[in-house]
Every structure is written in C-alpha cells, then in structure tokens.
C-alpha cells in the first residue's frame, strides 16, 4: 500500500467522490484508508460568493468516499484569502 | 474454420494479436480513441502510444434541439484504466 | 502486476493524471501500489483558474479507482519491452 503514514498529524485536503473538499489535521487512518480528521472544515465553493468554511470538528471519512488526499502547505494556504476565491465546486466522480 | 489455426481461443487473444498495432478503443463517457497498443492486462488496463482521443459532446440545451460536437486531442503515451474500457477492436486488415 | 511494474519503473518521472471528475493533475510520480493508487509530488492542477481548490497542496495521494488516464513520458517507456512482457504475462495467467 502506497502508505498514508506521511500525512499523519499534517494538515490535509480531502477531495470526496461527490466533489466536496474537506480540510483538517489527519489524526489517523486504517487499512481501508478510512481517515479521521481533527479540527476539520468543509470548504464550500461557489461562483456567487467567496469560499465558505463550515466547521465539522472531529470527522471520520470512509475510505471509499475519498478520491484524493493532499498535504497542505501552510504558508501558501494562509497567504490565500478564501473570501476572494470564486469557483465552481469540483465535479463529482462519474465512473 | 478451426479456431486454433488463427491463434485465437479466447477474447483476450484478439487483443494479444493486436500488440504493436493501431487499435480502436471505446470508453465510458462518450469517449473513443485510436492508438498503438503496447501493453494490457486482465483488467483491460492499456498502455498506448500516439493516441488520438475523441470526445462526443451532446448539447441538449441548445435552442435548435440537440447539438453534437466532438473534441479531439492527442497524447504521446497513455495509460488507460481498464474500468473505463468498453471495447478494444483490432486494426482493420484490408 | 505488469502495469504496476511499469509504473514502478516510472517513479521520479513527470506524469499527468486525469481523474474521472475531469480534473488533471501534473506532478512527479513518487510511488504506486498494487491498486494503482498514486502519490505525486510537486503537483499542479492543469486548469488552476477554474479549479483553485488545490492551490496550497504540494503533494497528494490519488485513489487508483478514480483515475481515467495517466499521460506517461514516452521517452521513458520501452515499448518493445512492454509488448514482450505483455505476451509473457498473457501466456501464464498465474496471478492477474
């Protein structure tokens, strides 16, 4: 398994099958790549308004739902003013 | 005809005999491509070179009823995941 | 197994992964596993203006099952070797 170990305790972005983006600290994961995030927030994208962050707290995401896990570079992330970002949500996966 | 004389006993043999030849591949999502086949496996994962992909886009919103357009693009060397493959067709031998 | 091996020979090469949500991500291939899950380093989303979601992401893990295509560096793919290996694997259907 191309391991997720390197992402533990890091701030990560999860992209889900339905196109949602969730950021948080990766607290842990298991063999099926189920992931537990702490201090997590969903980033809701829209063209009309800037990105809205909805707090989710401690969150368990099923591995099947996750299409991508990315390590967030804190310096870049903090330099971005999310309220100025206007974008469509990512499209859902169509198999 | 004796099937063994052609070297074809099972469906995958048809793909095996198309190695290093240009094949036509139909894919999910209204996509088709041709390319030179270099590798495949039992999942129908493919590796092809000199690929031309054609995507058919049907625009049902258009005022003149449904409008069909095609988008083409070329790629040098491509891995195609097998779960998207609908059919692989060998080159036409004319 | 064959395709897995091919990807392993391409580690540290630049690839473009296209997902089944039409997102294309370019980056350096760092590792693959038997499910063809992919780890990419130094990534960039191709249409970043339209998809700014991953602006602050430098490396990522992509689930194999959501990959549509991977564009490979042709100069690092030995096509003759691939065809020979494919014929060999087709002959003994040991562990597909």
Automatic annotation (TrEMBL), chain A:
The gene is LSM8. Coiled coil: none annotated. Its main location: nucleus. It comes from Marasmius oreades. This is LSM2-LSM8 complex subunit LSM8. The keyword DNA damage does not apply. GO terms for molecular function: mRNA binding. GO terms for biological process: mRNA splicing, via spliceosome. It is found in: Nucleus. Plays role in pre-mRNA splicing as component of the U4/U6-U5 tri-snRNP complex that is involved in spliceosome assembly, and as component of the precatalytic spliceosome (spliceosome B complex). The heptameric LSM2-8 complex binds specifically to the 3'-terminal U-tract of U6 snRNA. Residues 1-75 form the Sm domain. Transmembrane segments: none annotated. It comes from the Eukaryota. The keyword Cell membrane does not apply.
From TrEMBL, chain B:
The keyword DNA damage does not apply. Its main location: nucleus. CDD domains: LSm3. GO terms for biological process: mRNA splicing, via spliceosome. GO terms for cellular component: spliceosomal complex; U4/U6 x U5 tri-snRNP complex; U6 snRNP. InterPro entries: Lsm3, LSM_dom_sf, Sm, Sm-like_LSM3, Sm_dom_euk/arc. Residues 10-94 form the Sm domain. It is found in: Nucleus. SUPFAM superfamilies: Sm-like ribonucleoproteins. SMART domains: Sm. Keywords: mRNA processing, mRNA splicing, Nucleus, Ribonucleoprotein, RNA-binding, Spliceosome. It holds the Pfam family LSM. It comes from the Eukaryota. Binds specifically to the 3'-terminal U-tract of U6 snRNA. LSm subunits form a heteromer with a doughnut shape. Belongs to the snRNP Sm proteins family. This is LSM complex subunit LSM3. It comes from Marasmius oreades (fairy-ring Marasmius). The gene is LSM3.
From TrEMBL, chain C:
One of its GO terms (biological process) is mRNA splicing, via spliceosome. GO terms for molecular function: RNA binding. It comes from the Eukaryota. Its main location: nucleus. Keywords: mRNA processing, mRNA splicing, Nucleus, Ribonucleoprotein, RNA-binding, Spliceosome. It is found in: Nucleus. Transmembrane segments: none annotated. GO terms for cellular component: catalytic step 2 spliceosome; Lsm1-7-Pat1 complex; P-body; precatalytic spliceosome; U4/U6 x U5 tri-snRNP complex; U6 snRNP. The keyword RNA-binding applies. InterPro entries: LSM_dom_sf, Sm, Sm_dom_euk/arc, U6_snRNA_Lsm2. Residues 2-76 form the Sm domain. SUPFAM superfamilies: Sm-like ribonucleoproteins. Belongs to the snRNP Sm proteins family. PANTHER family: SNRNP CORE PROTEIN FAMILY MEMBER, U6 SNRNA-ASSOCIATED SM-LIKE PROTEIN LSM2. Component of LSm protein complexes, which are involved in RNA processing and may function in a chaperone-like manner. This is LSM complex subunit LSm2. It comes from Marasmius oreades.
């Amino acid at each position: 398994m191309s391991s997720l170990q390197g992402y533990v305790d890091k701030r990560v972005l999860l992209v889900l099958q339905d196109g949602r983006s969730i950021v948080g600290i990766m607290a842990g994961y298991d063999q099926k790549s189920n992931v537990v995030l702490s201090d997590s927030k969903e980033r809701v994208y829209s063209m009309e308004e800037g990105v809205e962050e909805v707090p989710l707290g401690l969150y368990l995401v099923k591995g099947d739902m996750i299409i991508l896990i990315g390590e967030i570079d804190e310096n870049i992330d903090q330099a971005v003013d999310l309220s100025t970002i206007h974008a469509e949500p990512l499209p859902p996966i169509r198999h | 005809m004796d099937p063994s004389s052609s070297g074809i006993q099972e469906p995958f043999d048809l793909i095996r005999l198309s190695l290093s030849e240009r094949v036509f591949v139909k894919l999910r999502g209204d996509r088709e491509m041709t390319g030179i086949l270099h590798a495949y496996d039992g999942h129908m994962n493919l590796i092809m070179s000199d690929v031309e992909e054609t995507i058919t886009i049907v625009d049902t919103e258009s005022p003149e009823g449904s409008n069909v357009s095609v988008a083409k693009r070329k790629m040098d060397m491509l891995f195609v995941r097998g779960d998207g493959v609908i059919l692989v067709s060998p080159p036409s031998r004319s | 197994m064959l395709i897995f091996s091919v990807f392993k020979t391409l580690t540290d090469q630049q690839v473009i992964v296209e997902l089944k949500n039409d997102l294309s991500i370019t980056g350096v291939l760092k590792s693959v596993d038997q499910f063809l899950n992919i780890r990419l380093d130094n990534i960039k989303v191709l249409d970043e203006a339209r998809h700014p979601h991953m602006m602050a992401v430098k490396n990522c893990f992509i689930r194999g099952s959501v990959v549509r295509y991977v564009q490979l560096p042709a100069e690092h793919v030995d096509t003759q070797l691939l065809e020979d290996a494919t014929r060999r694997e087709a002959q003994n259907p040991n562990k597909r």
